[in-house]
Amino acid sequence: MDRVLHPVSKALAAAGDPSQLLPAREQMAFTLGFHIILVPFGVALTALMLIAHYRGLRHDDSDALRLARRWSKVAAVLVAVGAITGTVLSFELGILWPGLMGDYGAAFGMPFAVEGLFFFLEAIFVSIYLYGWNRLPPWAHFWTGVPVVLASLGGAAAVIAANSWMNQPGGITLRDGHVTAVRPLRVFFNGAFWYETVHMLLAAYIVAGFTVAGVYAAGMLKGRRDRHHRLGFLIGFLVAAAAIPVQIFVGDTVAREVFKEEPAKFAAIELLPATGDHVPENLGGFLVDGKVRYGLPVPDMASILAGFTPSTEIRGLEAIPPEVRPTDRSVTIVHLAFDVMVGTTFLMLGLVLWFAWLWWRGRTMPTNRWFLRGAALSGLVAVVCLESGWVVTEVGRQPWTVVGLLLTRQAVTTQGNLWPLFGATVVLYAAVGTGAVLVLRAMARRWRTAGDETVYVPYGPEQPYATSGTAGEER
């Protein structure tokens, strides 16, 4: 590591929290928790859209092209909402956390500049792709969607670079507590970048895939068993199904890296008060007055998962200096969130295995109603898993904003009453979220009743290109 730790005095670390700390953390948690739900659809729904589009053109499949066209419109709505909520988050960083941006903005802000460039590219090509239906040659239109997928991946990676830098800061030189030199590539590709980025991108594909599959499973439960619904289900479900086993492997790797590089977070995950070996894996439970209550221990499992042997020693919370030790409450939150994340992941894996068994037996799309009920709920389960993972990442870093460099109480603003700002933000997000839901429901109703994707406008071409039927020819 090439970072120089900023010394945090015991007097400063032990000082009382500013009155602005609680509302600032609550607002950041609310806005990030809202925004993170939208990220998978900007990152992965566009990829599902292109999969359907490719199939439609390659196999002259009108159902696949209809899916691609509809999903492109849904993605456009959600990308727009994500842009609004993401913009609020960027303002919050400066308003709520001036200590972070003032002291470390030269490093922390660099990945966000990169993300801005990717977002502009994504917005431009989303517009071209949407306008291109019936207006561009079929394959030329398809290729305008590829930059959308690539730009969304790059933008997500840039944001993860900023977040992972907070967990493992590097690429900076400090003198008297001030940044004097920044090495951009070391900041961006920090020690946690690769595994956190892969972990998040897989999560995005899992959430988008299961959510799309869940929509069509719900339709099939209502009797809509046509090929359009079956194909929509299969594209989403198979993408998520392919990502789940890879995600379990990556998640295990991430946990082992956290064990090596972030011992405080790992101790919270394992609900471990004292350092030791032969550490059990506690399922559930709370930390009360430094002691584990109501957990179900699995003997030696935490040590085996951390180092492949029961004799692996794991640092406990007692090894952390008291002035920067996480509270029992935050430790419990991290531990339970980790349990929820792992539990929901294996629920989704179970659904995938159920699908494989039903397909093997019938050699066709499963229509078992209990399976379809589970599939209809899989999107919600995936969102819960995603939110739980972010709780582990963000709360697990406390009381640090930048681990080893900046305490959260040092980063927060000390000006004004933040509760009214938090209330206004909740109202704004509620309005934006309600508007998005109403728009998507209106689109779904129109598709069910009319089924016509073509909307002719004064500035459109007189003889549009074909996008269904003879997909590769010009009409």
UniProtKB/TrEMBL annotation:
<feature type="transmembrane region" description="Helical">
    <location>
        <begin position="231"/>
        <end position="250"/>
    </location>
</feature>
<feature type="transmembrane region" description="Helical">
    <location>
        <begin position="32"/>
        <end position="54"/>
    </location>
</feature>
<feature type="transmembrane region" description="Helical">
    <location>
        <begin position="109"/>
        <end position="130"/>
    </location>
</feature>
<feature type="transmembrane region" description="Helical">
    <location>
        <begin position="333"/>
        <end position="358"/>
    </location>
</feature>
<keyword id="KW-0472">Membrane</keyword>
<keyword id="KW-1003">Cell membrane</keyword>
<keyword id="KW-0249">Electron transport</keyword>
<feature type="transmembrane region" description="Helical">
    <location>
        <begin position="142"/>
        <end position="166"/>
    </location>
</feature>
<keyword id="KW-0479">Metal-binding</keyword>
<comment type="similarity">
    <text>Belongs to the cytochrome ubiquinol oxidase subunit 1 family.</text>
</comment>
<feature type="transmembrane region" description="Helical">
    <location>
        <begin position="74"/>
        <end position="97"/>
    </location>
</feature>
<feature type="transmembrane region" description="Helical">
    <location>
        <begin position="370"/>
        <end position="392"/>
    </location>
</feature>
<keyword id="KW-1133">Transmembrane helix</keyword>
<keyword id="KW-0813">Transport</keyword>
<keyword id="KW-0408">Iron</keyword>
<protein>
    <submittedName>
        <fullName>Cytochrome ubiquinol oxidase subunit I</fullName>
    </submittedName>
</protein>
<keyword id="KW-0349">Heme</keyword>
<keyword id="KW-0812">Transmembrane</keyword>
<dbReference type="InterPro" id="IPR002585">
    <property type="entry name" value="Cyt-d_ubiquinol_oxidase_su_1"/>
</dbReference>
<feature type="transmembrane region" description="Helical">
    <location>
        <begin position="198"/>
        <end position="219"/>
    </location>
</feature>
<feature type="transmembrane region" description="Helical">
    <location>
        <begin position="418"/>
        <end position="440"/>
    </location>
</feature>
<dbReference type="Pfam" id="PF01654">
    <property type="entry name" value="Cyt_bd_oxida_I"/>
</dbReference>
